[in-house]
Amino acid sequence: MRFLHPELLIWLLSIPLLGLIAWYAAIRRRRALKRFSGGAAWVSRFDDQVSLHRRLAKGLLWLIAMVAVIVAFARPQWGIHTEEVQQSGVDVVVVLDTSLSMAAEDLSPSRLEVGLNGIREMLDDLGGDRVALVTFAGQPALACPLTVDHGAVRLFLDVVEPEVMQIPGTALADALRLGVSALVSSEEDPLAADRSRALVLITDGEDHEGELDSIVPLLKEQGVIVHAIGVGTTRGAPIPLFAEDGTQSGFKKDREGRIVTTRLEESTLQSLALETGGHYYVATSAAREIGELTKSLGEMAASEFGAALRTRYRERFQWPLGFAIVALTIQMLIGDRRRSRQPRESQDEVSG
Prior knowledge:
By secondary structure, the chain is an alpha/beta fold. The protein has helices at residues 14-37, 40-47, 52-73, 111-125, 150-157, 172-183, 212-221, 266-276, 289-298, 318-333, 344-351; strands at residues 2-3, 76-89, 91-97, 130-136, 140-147, 197-203, 224-230, 237-238, 240-242, 248-251, 261-262, 280-282, 303-315.
């Protein structure tokens, strides 16, 4: 047996306190009765009319009902059953720029950290949508294929760092091409062509390789909408360099020894989003843009992509709740007064 909300069982500690309060109230009631009747000698007249055993039974039933109600609110569960759940949603591939320029700190704490935090916020709101993760710097890589297990995507996010590639630069077109490949399902799937697909591109917009013009026709052909999030500022920031122990060792410099400044290239991202029917957003440290992004994704038509078997515990809160109702019903039916018995002498006098 398990409880869905075991933290509510802490209220069981209040039951002894309620019993003490009821006991103290009974003492106060008896003292008030003494004052009303004119002294202890006269209290016995009222004692003959009230059954202390009945009052005690009513109090115990009330406390038992409170225990049962608390247990019911804690949602006891035992026994399991398997049910088939139809899965539906939108296929979303997050394409994340992990090039060295994303380590710039014109957004706090860094461009990459702002992007990662935005993805985590987005995963909280996507519900049953399938999500994949593509990272790219000099070369793109499929970090996580399409999955409804958003926890698995988070595990990959936790190990993402700015990449210092042997092949420097940012291959944006290749990353988008790999993202499309992750979205396109097997030809054996008859529903693949009907699915709603979106790419969420998170980058500072630098594209050292070019070739973006060649990727737009592919996106349109596959019906993929691109929502772009520009990370960084137009004023720019230097690109930090890090030693093997993770400490900053300086800033990137060009061949003349001047510090390289990286800036947000908005025009590229705005054009890409516009041509595919998506939206362009500017990243913020508070991830305010994520709410608008998930709203746009939510407006896309959800499509079914199969069923899954889920094992669930059976709810058993009905048992303690029903027990509480029975206890309270019996408690209300029990009266306080003793059963009146006419003395035998009085019966003899009446018969005589």
